[in-house]
Amino acid sequence: MLTAKTLLMAKIEATYNSDPTPVKTADVVVVHNVSVTPNTTFNDTQGLDCSMSPRAGTMGRQYMDITFDHELQTNSSSKAKLSCDVLLKACGYAYAAGPPGVYTPYSAYPSGLSSVTMYIHQDGMLWKTTGARGNVEFTFTAGEPVIASFTFQGIYVGGFTAVTFPTGCTGTEASLPLVAINKNLAWGGETPVDHPEVESLSFSLNNTLFARPTMDDAAAYGIGGIEITGRAGEGSMNPLAVATTDIPFLTAFNAGTESDLTYIVGDTNSTVLFDLPKVQFTNLTPGDRSGTRIFDLPFKVVREDGDDEIEITVTAVA
């Protein structure tokens, strides 16, 4: 079996934990670095007798841990969406069609929070999970594709089955990855005027995932569902160090200032604006990058009016 022959299909569930049957013609999301792992509680038998040899144990709760990376792409047919649209919706983002299309954190939780069924083909093995929800971290590195790193938990449905690897799905998304280059990064205030020179930037909602345990007979593996029970957004960036009178990182850090941070990427289909209206530095650490002084700046991602700490606006190119 070849690692390169890996394929992810994901589809929004109309009813939680009900498989809508993803298909290769519409539901493929191009990913890499895929990891599929049953998360299993194994119960060791505790009873003691005249032997030190252990007794056989029993299986307990089980659910799925699934991680993968996605090179961010616009959607060549629906230009106000991203090609990972269904995954974002299962990671605590709501979508308003616009135009432009806007992704923001869910405001009506738990009502309206999406879940997905995933089919993960691994060259003859098919892993399925339902009721999956997760978290996504965006990473921008100068001159490289923007990476969306997804972490999901889903319902365990018995492991894998032997299925022939799909064919004829190589044209599922025509867009190329979006590259973090030659675009505007701005920091500082509601109308940012400072443009720090940054090599890398990352941020996430940092959703808290909870595999809800149950002993009810409706859940064959002891998990009633996957919930997002909280979020505490964080991020970091590493700009070149400058005097505080030029770009006032130290002043903002000392004062606990909340400032806007934005970055834009795009292609011939769409432009994608990432807007963090309130970031608050939690430390300022001098560092080195090939003989140049930098600052490592971790930050909290906090609310402006609520349910708006990360906004992603996708605008179709006319």
In the predicted model, the low-confidence regions spanning at least 5 consecutive residues are: none
Beta-strand content: over 45%
Find the structural class using helix and strand composition. Answer: mainly beta
* Through-space gap between termini: 44 Å
N to C succession of SSEs: EEEEHEEEEEEEEEEHEEEEE
What is the number of strand segments?
Answer: 19
Radius of gyration equals 22 Å
Number of domains: 1
How would a textbook summarize the main sheet? Answer: 17 strands, antiparallel
Q: Key features?
A:
single chain, 318 residues, mainly beta, globular
Account of the protein in words:
The protein contains two helices and 19 strands. By secondary structure, it is mainly beta. It has one domain (6-41, 60-316). The strands form two sheets. The chain has a 17-stranded antiparallel β-sheet that branches. The mean pLDDT is 93.
List the helices and strands and how they pair.
Blueprint: E1 6-12, E2 28-29, E3 32-43, E4 58-71, H1 85-89, E5 93-96, E6 101-105, E7 116-122, E8 125-141, E9 147-162, E10 185-187, E11 198-204, E12 207-213, E13 223-231, E14 234-239, H2 249-255, E15 259-266, E16 270-281, E17 285-289, E18 292-301, E19 311-316
